[in-house]
Each structure stands twice: as C-alpha cells, then as structure tokens.
Design brief:
The protein has about 675 residues and is an alpha/beta fold. The strands form seven sheets. A six-stranded mixed beta sheet has the order 5-4-17-16-15-6. The chain has a six-stranded mixed beta sheet with strand order 23-25-24-27-22-26. It has a five-stranded parallel beta sheet with strand order 10-9-8-12-13, sandwiched between helices. Bound molecules: ligand MGD (2 copies), iron/sulfur cluster and molybdenum atom.
Length: about 675
C-alpha cells in the first residue's frame, strides 16, 4: 500500500491537493484531499470525491478507435496505436503537401490545465507551423478588461478576503465554482463582514449571501457607473490616493455626473435605493473588496465589465488596506514561477506567424473558412466543443464535413469524439506526472503518477511525442521527457521539495497590499480611469455602458442564460457518469412564475425554446432563481441527455458573437422565444 500525492487537473480555480492510496497490485483504492494542502485543506468536492469512478469507469476509452460508418454515427472499431499513428501521419502529410500546415488546427483546451498537458504539445504545432488558436472560451476577456485599467491581472490574494469588511461577489458563484474560497469569506463574516452577491441568477452563493442584488444580465456597467456617481456626489472618493495613483479622475467624474441611480435602476431593473445603499456602503465600510472570476465575461461587452469594475476599488482607495481591492484569477502571480517559453517553445515557430483561428468561433472556421487555407484537419485535446462552444449546430455541421479529418484525444467518447475519425485514449490525472500553477490560490501543485496508465491510454505530452515520431520529426525538443520539460518550465523552484510536499507557495508581496503605493504597469504608470490606449483602438476611453446587440426583442423576448450550476459537474466532464448526471436535476427550462403564467406554462409542462440558431424542447421548472424576462437552461449536459445523440444542447442556442476585446464570446447575450410545446 502506498500513498501518492497529486493535484487536481480540472479547469477549476482551487487546484486541490490530493492523496491517492494505491494497493500492492497497483490499483488506486482511495483518493482523498491532502490535509496538508494550504488552500484545500484536505477537502475535495462532489465531483472529484468520486474521481476513481471516473478513472475506472467502464466507459473509459482505453484503446485507439477508428470510425466505421458515417460521420457522427458514433460507430468505431478498435485499432492499434501503430495503425492510428500511421493513418494520422499519412493524412497530415497529404494535407501539408497539398494545403500547407495551416490547414491543420490543434484545438486544445483546459480539460487538463496542468502545465505539460496544456502546453507541451505547442512545441509540435509550432514546429509544424499549424494554425494557432486565438482568443478563448474562458478568462481572457476578464484578464484583458482588468489589464486595461490596471496594466496587469495582478490583484489581491483572494484568501485575504478574510480581512475584508464589505465583500462584493460580483458575477461569481463562489460556493459552486470556487468552493475552497468560501471558508475565507465565512471567516470575514464571523468578524462582522457583509457579503453581497450581484448576479442575474439566484445561485447557491446568492442564497448564502447577506444581500443579493439581481440585475438584468449584461447591465452591470450601468450599475457601476451609478455607484461612481454616488461616490463622487457624496465625497466618498479617496482623493489623496486617486490623485497620486490614477489618471483621468476629472474626466470620469464629469462622465458619471448624469449616471444617477434612477437612470441605472431603469436599465438594470434594480431598486434605486439599493443602488444608493450599495455605493455608500462600498464607500464607507473599509476594507471593501470585489471578488469576481470568469462568468461575467461571457457578454458582448464583457471586457468593459472588468475594465469598469476595477475602477471602483481605486476610487475609494481600497488598495491601501489589507483585505481591500479587487480579487480575480491569480494566475498572473502564480505564473511568475513558470517559464512559458521554455515549456511551449515559441522559438520553434522559427520566425513564422501561422494563421490564427478564433477559438470561440469554431463553427465559422469549419464552415466559412477565414483567410488562408481551409481547415482540413482538427485535433481536439482536452475539449468537448459539441457541448461547450456556442453555435453548436454550426460546429456540428463543420465536423460532419467529409473532407475534414478529425482526431480527438479524450478519456471518453464525448459528443465531440462521436463525430471524430480517430479517437485516441487519454490518461487521467492519476496516471501521469505533471504540475499545476493554480489560478485560485498562490500555489503550484505537483502531480505524481499514482498508477500505470490504464489500457493503452497516453498523457497529452506522450501523445505529442508519438505524433512527432510518426510524422518523422527530428527536432529534439519534441521528444523531451516529462521531467526535463517540467524542470525547464519551473526554473526557480526546488523540484525535490515540490515533489516531496506536493505543493509550494508562489511569490506575493510581503505586506499583502500589492498596490497600496500604486505603481501600476500601464502606459501612464498609474491606474487608468481614462484609457487613451483603449481610445486608440476605437473603444471608449472612459467606462461606458452599451446594451448588447442581441438583446431581447419582440421576436425573441427572453434573455437566455446557460450557466454552470450542478455541483457534481465540472464543465462538460461528468454529466455522463453514473455517480454524477443521474443525481442532478435533468435539463429543464427555468422560468419565473410571472413569465410562466403569461406563457400559460405550469411546472413540468414541456416548452419549446428557440431562436434562429436552434430549438430545444424542455420540461419547465418554475423558479425564483431567475427574474422576469430571463430564462435559463443549465449547461454541461450532452446531446443524449437532451433526448438523443443528435439532439441540440444548451449551446445550440447561444451566440458566438465576439466580445468587445479580449477574444472571448458573448454566450450569455442570447435572446430566445418560449412557448408551450
Ligand atoms: N453555455 C455555456 N458554455 C460554456 C460555459 C458556460 O458556462 N456556459 N463555460 C465555458 C468555459 S468557462 C469553459 S472553461 C469551457 C469548458 O469546456 P469543456 O470542453 O467542456 O471543458 P472540460 O469539461 O473541462 O474538459 C473537456 C474534456 O477534457 C477531457 N480531459 C480531461 N483530462 C484530459 C487529459 O489529460 N487529456 C485529454 N486529452 N483530455 C482530457 C475531459 O474528459 C473532457 O471531455 O466551456 C465554456 N462553455
Ligand atoms: N462545480 C463547478 N465548478 C467549476 C466549474 C464547473 O463547471 N462546475 N467550472 C470551472 C470553470 S471552467 C470556470 S471558468 C469557473 C467559473 O467561475 P465563475 O465565474 O464563478 O462561474 P460562472 O458560473 O461561469 O459565472 C458566475 C456567475 O456569473 C453570472 N452572470 C452571468 N451574466 C452576468 C452578468 O451580466 N452580470 C453579473 N453580475 N453576473 C452574471 C452567472 O449567472 C453565474 O452565476 O468555475 C470553475 N469551477
Ligand atoms: S474540481 Fe476544483 S474543487 Fe474539485 S477537487 Fe478539483 S480543484 Fe478541487
Ligand atoms: Mo472556464
């Protein structure tokens, strides 16, 4: 019996440390939280408490598979690795000879967000000169919006919320998506802090808050501008800090002069008095802090949301205080220990700059090719776009092209894998070594391989070594072993200690107040309430509210949200497993009582929900989680859970409109109509 330390690989801010008990036959018999881990402290979550059920699931793909029958039929035969690699190499060589390497697109995402899993493969794609992904589905918009104001994504250590008096959880569902932060928030509360949640959905986090505000989706910037109005009007601005460390205050003050709470109330649907109270409490109950994460970026004006939000703590001088400021992803801190270039090796591009394909607009790229050679091959790694990418029916149409060669590397035959030509078996996290720099806490975690790979599964790094060999590449960097690559990636860390302990701290300013004395890395060297750089790009220099293009209309009167909401799911990863999906409420259309009555819908009735992209047929769930004019369909369920292998899913309805900047996508500016089925 052995105990092996590891770190969760999921695309989750918590990056929990775990320990795996392995019996003498090399089988993992228990996976539990590592009690020594400073952030997760021995607790995992309802997803990963059942992780061994995933590892040893009967549905695991354990051998390479080749499609038999028509595309998307989901019929496969088992083949050898040798046959799979030979076929891939032949297809790739033909495509490269005929169309160039840019006709191949590696479509890689964070199903495993460990360093090797996510980035070692870049070496091969750079070396080949394949198309690159630009933008993304997660986090880039929030990072870009934040950096417009602050010059960086670096903010508070979220665990310092334990020192806050007034905590605003703005567009983040902490208790679901970031559960290990909640104890720090409870600690602040025990010392008298108030917790406010601002979300268009009454989430589990909203239920646990002291105060819940439920604006219409996509209207928060109007609320923020009204808060600024009150702060300026009532003399709650910290003029000393603002004068010393920001630019553009006078312009901003003039700009918000007519952003009265009444004006914002009409747009957001909030109560005018609540807006006044929120602004005044935020301006007087120091230390005040705003916690946000990713969700609010999934709007057309997602970057503006984060750009505007980061102005609020600055106006009140919140950065002076321990427990004051703005807390988002800490990856910009934790990545300080990580040498990206040494791992991903952009130098292997050798001066080339391959065509970029916008990740969120995969459907367009496969059906309406951007400039450059049409895509003839896509390699999906750690991603399930037929559940997770907007305009899903268009993605499906692209994947059904007979002249497209699709390779999927995954642990399961996901909806996406069903449409593949070749499916390759991927290891789970307990089968391969890796390291994880967290985005929720200031740690890097080590992950030992606890067991041998099951069947013929290979890790992402081994996959790329095999592909490189099959393609006849000779560049030595493509064949580095895992430890060599990890040593290069983490040059400043004591890897022996990291391997022994399972985690290490990452650097953070000793007084824990990173911006108390300003010094923001913006063009002006100050926090930019006015951004001339943004103006140069054609965007407004000052925080500005703009309604979404796809707003509810006479034809499509409801705003549709498709959020994460199942505690047993992690993105699209668990809905198919017996200890996860069947224990969650099945997909339904959430609608409030007033709207349901107006539509003649009773709880449990079937409703059609549609727009020009797709139509779903769902049972109705009447709920107080959404406000009038807003409906929700939970996301993460596969086609089979929506009625069959060809059924549309939540993202069949969603918009793939790009965000204002940051390269994200406006999933949640989607309008739909609803009627009795
Ligand atoms: N409507 C709507 N759409 C959304 C979102 C939403 O909230 N609503 N959220 C968006 C966000 S924030 C994100 S991050 C994306 C998530 O997008 P998804 O693609 O759903 O991400 P995951 O479920 O995390 O992981 C994808 C796949 O990675 C596989 N995987 C796990 N480990 C490994 C490994 O080591 N190797 C390989 N090759 N595969 C592995 C898993 O089995 C899984 O099938 O979805 C986005 N789409
Ligand atoms: N259990 C669980 N945990 C997860 C995941 C999971 O699938 N399941 N996914 C992981 C991933 S990939 C990510 S990116 C993180 C995301 O972590 P979060 O950002 O915390 O979660 P989301 O659910 O994407 O979005 C947060 C909230 O934003 C709200 N929202 C939508 N539009 C607006 C708006 O216009 N204004 C405001 N104020 N709020 C809005 C949504 O209703 C939602 O409740 O969670 C991670 N953790
Ligand atoms: S999914 Fe998130 S909360 Fe669950 S074990 Fe992994 S890192 Fe921790
Ligand atoms: Mo995400």
């Amino acid at each position: 019996m052995r105990l092996v330390l590891g770190t969760c690989h999921h695309d989750c801010p918590d990056s929990c440390g775990w320990q795996v008990t392995v019996d003498d036959d090399g089988r993992a018999i228990q996976l539990r939280g590592n009690p020594e881990h400073p952030y997760s402290a021995g607790e995992l979550c309802p997803k990963v408490n059942r992780y061994l059920g995933r590892v040893y699931s009967d549905e695991r793909v354990l051998h390479p598979l080749r499609r038999v029958g028509a595309k998307g039929e989901g019929r496969f035969e088992q083949i050898t690795w040798n046959d799979a690699l030979t076929e891939i190499a032949e297809r790739f060589h033909t495509i490269i000879d005929t169309h160039g390497a840019e006709a191949i697109l590696p479509y890689v995402s964070a199903g495993n967000q460990s360093l090797l899993a996510l980035m070692f493969g870049d070496r091969l794609w750079h070396h080949l000169g394949a198309s690159r992904l630009t933008g993304g589905l997660c986090g880039l918009v929030a990072g870009a919006g934040t950096a417009t104001t602050m010059g960086t994504g670096k903010g508070m250590d979220p665990s310092d919320l334990r020192h806050s008096r007034f905590i605003v959880l703005w567009g983040t569902n902490t208790r679901l998506t970031n559960r290990h932060l909640w104890p720090f928030i409870e600690e602040a509360r025990d010392s008298g802090a108030t917790v406010v949640v601002i979300d268009p959905i009454r989430t589990a986090t909203a239920e646990a808050a002291d105060w819940f505000l439920q604006p219409r989706p996509g209207t928060d910037v109007a609320l923020m501008l009204a808060m600024m109005h009150v702060l300026v009007r009532d003399g709650l601005v910290d003029r000393e800090w603002v004068d010393a460390h920001t630019v553009g205050f006078d312009d901003l003050a003039a700009h918000v002069a007519d952003w009265t709470p009444a004006r914002a109330a009409a747009i957001t649907g909030l109560d005018e008095g609540d807006i006044e109270t929120l602004a005044r409490r935020f301006g007087t109950e120091a230390p005040a802090a705003i916690r946000t994460l990713v969700g609010a970026e999934h709007h057309e004006h997602g970057a503006m949301f984060f750009r505007t939000l980061t102005c609020l703590p600055a106006l009140i001088g919140a950065w002076r205080h321990l427990g004051g400021g703005y807390a988002r992803s800490v990856s910009t801190w934790t990545n300080d220990v990580f040498d990206f270039a040494a791992l991903a090796r952009p130098d292997l591009l050798a001066g080339r700059s391959p065509r970029g394909v916008a990740m969120p607009q995969l459907g367009r790229a496969l059906t309406d090719p951007p400039l450059g050679p049409p895509l003839h091959a896509v390699v999906m790694i750690g991603v399930n776009p037929l559940v997770s990418v907007p305009e899903r029916e268009r993605v499906r149409a692209g994947l059904s092209r007979d002249d497209l060669f699709t390779v999927v590397h995954d642990q399961f035959v996901t909806d996406t894998a069903r449409d593949a030509d070749i499916v390759l078996p991927a290891t789970t996290q307990i089968e391969a070594v890796d390291a994880v720099t967290s985005w929720g806490s200031l740690h890097v975690g080590w992950n030992h391989a606890a067991i041998e790979p099951l069947g013929e599964a290979v890790s992402n790094s081994e996959l790329h070594r095999r592909l490189a060999r099959a393609l006849g590449c000779t560049e030595p960097a493509l064949f580095d072993d895992d430890l060599t690559a990890l040593r290069a990636a983490l040059p400043t860390l004591d890897l022996d200690a990291l391997q022994r302990d399972g985690f290490a701290d990452t650097p953070f300013p000793a007084d824990r107040r990173p911006w108390a004395d300003g010094g923001f890395p913006t063009p002006s060297g100050k926090l930019e309430l006015r951004s001339d750089a943004l103006a140069a790009l054609g965007a407004p220099a000052l925080p500005t509210y703009t309604p979404p293009t796809e707003a509810p209309s006479a034809e499509f009167p409801f705003a549709l949200l498709t959020p994460k909401q199942q505690m047993r799911f992690l993105n699209s990863s668990y809905s198919h497993l017996p200890q996860h999906g069947p224990l969650e409420p099945a997909p339904a259309l959430e609608v409030c009582a007033d709207d349901a009555a107006a539509l003649g819908l009773a709880d449990g009735d079937r409703a059609r929900v549609w727009n020009h992209r797709a139509e779903l047929d769902l049972p109705v769930r009447i709920t107080n989680r959404v406000r009038p004019g807003v409906v929700a369909v939970p996301w993460g369920w596969w086609a089979r859970h929506h009625g069959g292998p060809d059924a549309p899913v939540a993202n069949s309805l969603t918009s793939d409109a790009a965000t204002d900047w940051g390269g994200g996508v406006a999933f949640w500016d989607t309008a739909v109509a609803v009627a009795r089925a």
